[in-house]
Amino acid sequence: MKYARRLAAGAALISGVALLSAVAGAQEVKQEGKSTLGNAKVPPVTQQMLDAADKNSKDFLLTNGNYAQTRFYPGKQIDRDSVKHLHVAWIFQTDVKESLETSPIVVGGVMYVTTSFSHVYALDAKTGQQLWHYNHKMGPITTYCCGPNNRGVQVLDDKVYLATLDSKLVALNAKTGEVVWMTDIADPELGYSETMAPTVIKDKVLIGTNGGEYGIRGFVRAYDAKTGKQIWNFNTVPENSVGVWATKDATGRDMHRNIQAEKDQFAKAGDPYAKLGGGVWQNPA
Questions:
Q1: Is residue 244 part of a domain?
Q2: Structure pTM?
Q3: Which of 21, 26, 30, 131 would suit a FRET pair with 109, their CA atoms being 20 to 30 Å apart?
């Protein structure tokens, strides 16, 4: 079921993550929103570690396991024979009463989990104890379609990167949950929103956008991982693109198009290429 909302922040209370064994005390951070500060003893994540994520059985460093997005985990402890012996080791109750579509990131015994409405929790992966919680303060207007989900964060060096429902990119201190920097990605009033996990590589944070249901113009952008400054932008719909004014399809069948009427409509609508969608809202391989 698709739906759109204009909302002024809000969250309630449930949702759960149940896990088994894992791969490191506890508090809260509300800043640029509301957060609970903590102290997670977590090592920095290097580019070398990310490049070798597909061979790392102790951590889970990328949204889908590795840059190829295979979701393959190389550990030997859990296989087709041992999987039947899995049981719940702990359950963590979030403060958010909404859907949960996140992919947990695990670094040195610390698990980073997101929820709908752009919350981030840092947990002890062995016990489920909360280390810190970042509660993003939504802007006054947020337009989105199909749910307020968030699919996860990305970690590089000593920072955790989050893309928010109101189209912001946030860098958090991986140990404390404090905001290091925050930058606007696009205007949420025009239908832009974020549910995807960012992708980090070397000194850049890459992000696409949601919003095709509202006539946005899709893009992929790169931001400086240390400062949040935009480095480059690639529009998925080319400048001045209006498609092909063909009257027949690829098989030669007549599509019965009134080309002049279509061109007249385009002229009234302004620049159609700027509103044709083309959003990139999942992590590409």
A1: no
A2: 0.80
A3: 30
